[in-house]
Every structure is written in C-alpha cells, then in structure tokens.
Amino acid sequence: MISVAIVEDDDVIREAVREYLDSQDNLVCTAAKPSVEHFLAVLNEETLPDVILMDIGLPGMSGISGMKLITGKYPGVNIIMFTVYIDSHKIFESLCAGASGYLLKNTSFPDIKQAIEIIHSGGSMMSPPIARKVMEHFHAGRKRQVTSPLTDKEKEIVQGLVDGLSYKMIADSACISIETVRTHIKNIYKKLHVHCKADVIRKSLSGEI
After folding, report:
1. How much of the chain, in percent, has pLDDT values that exceed 70?
2. Which whole number is the average pLDDT over 65-92?
3. Which range among 3-12, 61-70, 71-80, 198-207 shows the weakest confidence by mean pLDDT?
4. 173-205: buried (b, 16+ CB within 10 Å) or exposed (e) per residue?
5. Of 4, 54, 55, 125, whose CA is between 20 and 30 Å from 92?
6. What one-character DSSP code corresponds to residue 106?
7. d(CA 52, CA 170)
8. Are 84 and 113 in contact (CB under 8 A)?
9. What is the rounded CA–CA span in Å between residue 102 and residue 161?
10. From CA 203, how far away is CA 76, in angstroms rounded?
C-alpha cells in the first residue's frame, strides 16, 4: 500500500484527488491539507507518507519552500509538484529543491496514479508539456559546441543533480563518500561561477557544461 498526502488549497481539487486515491486498491491518502503550514503541523516520522502531491501556489508558504523544508528533514520522501505553472523557472526551481516529479493539474486521475507508482518505485515522472520544455532546453544547448571545464566525475555528479538525486544517492552511485560529493560540488560551483544547484541544472540542460 502506497501512502499519499495532498497539499492543495483548492477544496474541490483536493477532495476529488483524495477520493480517487482512497478508491484504489494500492493507494491510501493519509493527509489532505490546504497549506504547507497545516501539513507540517501533522507531519512526523510516524505520519510521513511515501509520496506527497504538493501544489506550488499555496496560501502562506509556497509549495517549493515547503518542499525544501520537508526534504531537508526527511530526505527520502518523494514529492510531486502538482500545479498549473509551466514556466521554466518554476520547473527548474522545483527540480533543484528535490521534486521527484512535476504534474500539471489537468493530469487525469489514472495518470496521477501511474506517476505515484512510478515515483514510489524509484522513477521520475513529468507531464508531457513539462518534459517537452525540459527537452527543448537540452536540445537547444546541444546545438552549441561547448568545451566543458568539468572532469568526467564532476559531469557524473552534475547528471545526478539533474536527475534529482540526493547527495547520498549520488555518492552510492559513484562509489564515493558524501563528503567527496560535497567537495566535487564545491569545485563545480567554482568552475561554473554559480552559487546554487538551480544554476548548475540550468547550465547542464542548456548545454553550457
């Protein structure tokens, strides 16, 4: 059984999604809250769901800010941004903050279920328009010939960041320690003249690395 929480301020959407999830044999909605603040008030180790559907434009704290708090305290949790926003800044900011998926609110219930299942099994999921926008950035960058200042290992770590992996997951994949990952990331920031993961991901997807 996959436990799912919903953070969505639109009562109709929140309740409709909750009812659908609860009607599925392998899904259960353990919390449905209208804001990050309401959700944080009931969130702890015992109530932590497997997957969180998180709106971005919420009253009070934004979904992206809320996600940063939640993933900072519970790094293993899977969060799917569930929103109307389709602009590149929101997409990349969400991915950098730790989102495992990005779905638009016009996504059908069966597709929401599929996304939850895929992400719970370790994959990632985006609505087709979002995936297309990410690919457009990637292909636009591929058209430019760029000599990367990064080593092969640093490029491997950058790819991990683009894939939304945690430092621990990157370390495990590259067979290095988390401290070594942090050292590589500091060097990557220095070489690329950036100060955050969002800028690294933007440069990677635009072919500047």
Report:
1. 89
2. 85
3. 198-207
4. eeebeeebbeebbebbeeebeeeebbbbbbbbb
5. 4
6. T
7. 22
8. no
9. 16
10. 26
User: Is 104 within 8 Å of 126 (Cβ atoms)?
Assistant: no
C-alpha span between 93 and 79 (Å, rounded): 13
Alpha helices in 48-177, H assignment, sequence order: 63-73, 88-97, 109-120, 128-142, 152-162, 167-174
- Report d(CA 64, CA 7) in Å as an integer: 12
In this structure, what token pair is assigned to residue 44?
């702890």
Which H or E element spans position 204? Answer: helix 197-205
Query: CA-CA distance, 188 to 202, in Å (whole number)?
Result: 13
- pLDDT band at 42; cut points 50, 70, 90: very high
Q: How far apart are CA 196 and CA 87, in angstroms?
A: 19
Beta pairing, strands 27-33 & 51-54: unpaired
Q: Which two tokens stand for residue 39?
A: 């959700």
Identify the three-state secondary structure at position 125.
strand
What is the C-alpha to C-alpha distance for residues 45 and 51, in angstroms, rounded to an integer? 14
Q: How confident is the model at residue 140 (pLDDT cuts 50, 70, 90)?
A: low
